[in-house]
Amino acid sequence: MPIEVVWFKRDLRLRDHKPLQVASQSKNPLFLMYLVEPERKSQPDTDDIHIEWEIDCALALDKNLRLIGGSLHIIHSNAIEILGKLDRTHGINRIFSHEETGTSWSYQRDMLVKEWCEQQEIQWIEFPSNGVVRGLESRDNWKASRDARMSEPLIEIPHNLTVIPAKENPDLTSVKLNPRPLKHRPVPGEDAAMSTIDSFLKERGELYRWRMSAPALATNHCSRLSPYFSAGCISIGRAVQMVSERQRQLKNEGLDPDSKSNWKKSLSSFQSRLAWHCHFIQKLEQEPTLDIRAMNHDLDSLMVREFDQKLYNAWATGNTGWPFFDACMRQLTSTGWINFRMRAMIMSVASYTLWLPWRKTGLHLARLFMDYEPGIHWSQVGMQSGTTGINTVRAYSILKQGKDHDKEGYFIKKWIPELRNVPSKYIHEPWKMPEEIQASASCLIGKDYPMPCTDEASARKEGVRRAYSARRNPDAKTTSRLVYQKHGSRKKSSRRTHKSQEHRSIQTKLF
Ligand SMILES: Cc1cc2nc3c(=O)[nH]c(=O)nc-3n(C[C@H](O)[C@H](O)[C@H](O)COP(=O)(O)OP(=O)(O)OC[C@H]3O[C@@H](n4cnc5c(N)ncnc54)[C@H](O)[C@@H]3O)c2cc1C
Hints:
Residues 493-508 have low confidence and may be disordered. Strands 3-2-1-4-5 form a five-stranded parallel sheet, sandwiched between helices. The N and C termini lie far apart (63 Å). It is built from 25 helices and five strands. It has three domains: 3-129, HUPs (Rossmann fold, 3-Layer(aba) Sandwich); 190-285, Alpha Horseshoe (Serine Threonine Protein Phosphatase 5, Tetratricopeptide repeat); 297-505, DNA Cyclobutane Dipyrimidine Photolyase, subunit A, domain 3 (Orthogonal Bundle). The chain is mainly α and 511 residues long.
C-alpha cells in the first residue's frame, strides 16, 4: 500500500493541522515526518538554539501523537533524499504540508521539492497555516482574506491514526548541536503553548498594554507566545479565536470596572499584534529575498552604511558603554528573548547611531532570537533601519528609553553586574561619575565597564540626517511608492494618503 506523507515543518502541533486532518481520511497509512535538514545548520540566520527548540517541540508532538495511535519520524536528512527513499521503499501517494514562508533558503528548497514531485508525478498538497495569502495580487484585499481565514472553524485533535510507526527515541547523534544554554528557556511543545496562552488570557495579560514596553515588566506581562508561534505549536487562528472568546466572556464577568477596562484595552492591543504577525510575514511571502535585499534597494544603496568591526563587536556583545542598551543586549543573549520596543531600539542603534549594515546586524539578531520568524524579522529589520522608505524614521535615544523604562536602573543592574553599586544618579551615564565615586562603586569606567563606544546623541543625529538625505532622492521616492503599493498597510491609507504619510515620516521625533 502506498503511503501518505505528512511533512511537519514549522507547524509542530496536533490541533489546527489541516494536512494531518485531510491525510488521515485516506485509506493508506500515514508517514508523519519532521526533518532536521543538514543544510539548515549552515544558514547564516540559523542558530543551534532554533534547531534544538524545534527538535524538542517535535519530540513533544511525538508524545502526543502516540496517544492517538500515531508517531513522528524525526529524521536528519535532506528533503529530496528522504522523499526519494520513502518513494522507493513504500511508494508515496501524496505529500501533505502547510505552506511555509521562509527565507531564500527554504524558498529554494520548496522549489526543488516541487520540481521533484512533478518529475515523480506525486501530488504535494499545501495548506495555508495563518493569514498569509500565497499569490496575493493586491494588498488592498489582504485584510479581508486574513480576517476570513481567522474565523474559519478550528480543527480539533484527530484520533485513531494509522501510521507507519516511528522508533520511540530517534537517533539524532549525527545532528551534532552545540546550542548556547538559555536562561528561563520555555517548556517546548503544544501543551506548554496552550498553558502559556491560558495564563496570559486569564492572569498575566490584564496590564499588557501598559507593561509591554519596559523590559523588566514585559517578561511577565507579554504573552511570550512567540517561540510557540515560530515552531507552530499553536496556530494564529486559534490564538485569535481564544482572544475573541475572552473578549466576549469579559462582558458577563463581574470584574470591577477598572479591571474590566484594563482587560478590554489589553486584549484589543494583543489582537492587533496577532494581525501584525501575518501582516509582516505576508511581506516576505511576496518578496522572498527580503533577508538579502532591502525592500527599497535604491534607498538602501544611497545610505552606504559601513561595517566597523569594533563598533559591531561592542553592539553585538552588549559592551557599548551605554548601560540600558547593554542590559537589553545581554538579556537577549542570555534568554533568547526581549520585548518589541527593545528589539526596535537595538536595531535602530545598529542602523542609525552606529551606521552598521543591516544584513550583518539582522543576522546576528536572528541567531540570538529564540523565536526567529523570518517574515517578521526581516520586515522589522528593514523598518527599523529605514530601508523601506514607507515608515517613519525611528532613531531611538538610549537615554530616553532607559529613563522611561528603567528610571532607577534595576534592570540595568540585573544584567550588568559591573554596575551593581553605581548610584542611580549615574546609572544611565556612568562615565559622568567622578573618580572617587567610581572607586567606591568598584567600577572604574574604561576598565570594569567600557567608556561609550561613540557619542550617542551626535552619532544618532548624523544617522538620521543621512537617512533623510537619502530619502529625498527622486529614485528612492519612486521606489517607496512601489514598496507602498506592494507592502503598505491599507489600514493607514484609509485615514491618510501615502503622500501625507511620507510627509509625516520626515518630521524628526525623539523615540
Ligand atoms: C528588529 C525586530 C526583529 C523582530 N524579530 C522577530 C522574530 O524574529 N520573531 C518574532 O516572533 N517577532 C519578532 N519581532 C516582533 C516582536 O518583537 C516579537 O514578536 C515579540 O516581542 C514577541 O514576544 P511576545 O510573543 O511576548 O509578544 P506579544 O507582545 O505578546 O505579541 C503576541 C504576538 O504578536 C506578534 N507580534 C507582536 N509584536 C509584533 C510586531 N511588532 N510585528 C509582528 N508581529 C508581532 C508575535 O507573533 C507575538 O508573538 C521583531 C521585532 C523587531 C523590532
